């Protein structure tokens, strides 16, 4: 069978990621990598652990005062991360 429409590598990889439902996991981890860019280097230094699962970023902050400040700006951090990633993959941030 002859194929008449050629696809680029990016299209093939995108199709594969959607078929295998990998796209969401990749975007979640991309958002996690963008954490330091969104919160800045000062806050990033105070972050001791961070991981993502099922759209929830869990972050351990070494300062209680900073943790309270971040809880107040949680929705704007989520919005910025989702904007940078391009899709609403992060739905919650849990600070410990």
Provide an overview of this structure.
This protein is an alpha+beta fold. It has a single domain (24-95), classed as Alpha-Beta Plaits (2-Layer Sandwich), CATH 3.30.70. It is 55% helix and 18% strand. The protein contains 6 helices and 3 strands, in the order ααααββααβ. The protein has helices at residues 9-19, 23-33, 35-39, 41-45, 64-72, 74-85, and strands at residues 47-53, 56-61, 92-95. It has a 3-stranded mixed beta sheet with strand order 1-2-3. The longest helix is centred in the C-terminal third of the chain and has 12 residues, at 74-85.
Write the layout of secondary structure elements.
Blueprint: H1 9-19, H2 23-33, H3 35-39, H4 41-45, E1 47-53, E2 56-61, H5 64-72, H6 74-85, E3 92-95
Parallel strand pairs: 2-3
Antiparallel strand pairs: 1-2
Name some characteristics of this structure:
single chain; 96 residues; alpha+beta; Alpha-Beta Plaits; 3-stranded mixed sheet; 55% helix
Note the gap between the termini. Answer: 57 Å
Number of domains: 1
Strand order in the largest sheet: 1-2-3
How would the global form be characterised? Answer: elongated
Q: How would you classify the quaternary structure?
A: single chain
CATH class: Alpha Beta
In terms of DSSP E residues, the strand content is 15-25%
Category by helix and strand content: alpha+beta
What is the helical fraction, as a range of percent?
Answer: 55-70%
Rg, please? 17 Å
Instruction: Give the total of beta strands.
Output: 3
Question: Low-confidence segments, ≥5 residues, pLDDT <50?
Answer: none
* Average predicted confidence as pLDDT: 90
Largest sheet: 3 strands, mixed
CATH architecture: 2-Layer Sandwich
**Tally the helices: what do you get?**
6
Write down the secondary-structure element order: HHHHEEHHE
The name CATH uses for the topology is Alpha-Beta Plaits
């Amino acid at each position: 069978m002859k194929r008449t429409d050629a696809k680029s590598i990016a299209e093939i990889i995108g199709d594969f990621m959607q078929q295998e439902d990998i796209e969401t996991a990749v975007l979640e981890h991309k958002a996690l990598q963008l954490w330091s860019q969104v919160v800045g280097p000062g806050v990033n230094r105070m972050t001791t652990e961070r991981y993502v699962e099922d759209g929830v970023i869990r972050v351990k902050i070494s300062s209680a005062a900073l943790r309270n400040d971040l809880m107040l700006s949680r929705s704007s951090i989520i919005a910025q991360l989702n904007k940078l990633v391009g899709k609403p993959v992060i739905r919650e941030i849990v600070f410990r």
